[in-house]
Amino acid sequence: MTHQEKIDLLKKFAQAFNNHDIDTLMDCMTDDCIYDASSGAFEFGTRFEGQQAVRESFLGIFKVFPDAQWNNDIHFVDGNRGASQWYFTGTLEDGKKVEVNGNDLFHFKDGKIYIKDSYRKNRV
């Protein structure tokens, strides 16, 4: 994969998140993909491994935040690693709005995203 192809993949992935397009999201990821969520009981947050577990996790995000958007995205690539910065907005079922900065760190493998490691601010 060229540098530009990796950038294009991250842009496609970001757009699929904003469209809540689960099939395109999963097409961008390897069969043995890993998603490390930004929160959880472990030092890496909560880990989801494999297409089915990652799919269910992403669908869970869309259920909790039906209007979720990741805007102002900027993407960086260096070798087999990448990063995206974004501004998340979403509304919880109780009407509470969430607006935070965040980023994802990526590992690429076989022309796809192998690992998505998410970080976001926690407003208090």
Describe the model.
The structure is a single chain. The chain is an alpha+beta fold and 124 residues long. It has a single domain, classed as Roll (Nuclear Transport Factor 2, Chain: A). It contains 3 helices and 6 strands. Strands 2-1-6-5-4-3 form a 6-stranded mixed beta sheet. Strand 4 and strand 5 (97-109) form a beta hairpin. The protein starts with a helix and ends with a strand. The mean pLDDT is 96.
CATH topology: Nuclear Transport Factor 2, Chain: A
* Shape-level CATH architecture: Roll
**Cα-atom radius of gyration:** 14 Å
Summarize the biggest pleated sheet. 6 strands, mixed
Number of helices: 3
Overall 3D shape: globular
Trace the largest sheet across and list its strands.
Answer: 2-1-6-5-4-3
Termini Cα gap: 41 Å
Fraction in helix: 25-40%
**Could you say which structural class the secondary elements and strand pairing correspond to?**
alpha+beta
CATH class descriptor: Alpha Beta
Mean pLDDT value: 96
Number of strands: 6
pLDDT < 50 runs, ≥5 residues? none
Return the string of H and E elements: HHEEHEEEE
Architecture blueprint of SSEs:
Blueprint: H1 3-19, H2 22-27, E1 29-36, E2 47-49, H3 51-64, E3 69-78, E4 81-91, E5 97-109, E6 112-120
Parallel strand pairs: 1-6
Antiparallel strand pairs: 1-2, 3-4, 4-5, 5-6
Key terms:
single chain, 124 residues, alpha+beta, Nuclear Transport Factor 2, Chain: A, 3 helices, 6 strands
Summarize, please:
The chain has about 120 residues and is of the alpha+beta class. It has helices at about 5-20, 20-25, 50-65; strands at about 30-35, 45-50, 70-80, 80-90, 95-110, 110-120. InterPro entries: NTF2-like_dom_sf, SnoaL-like.
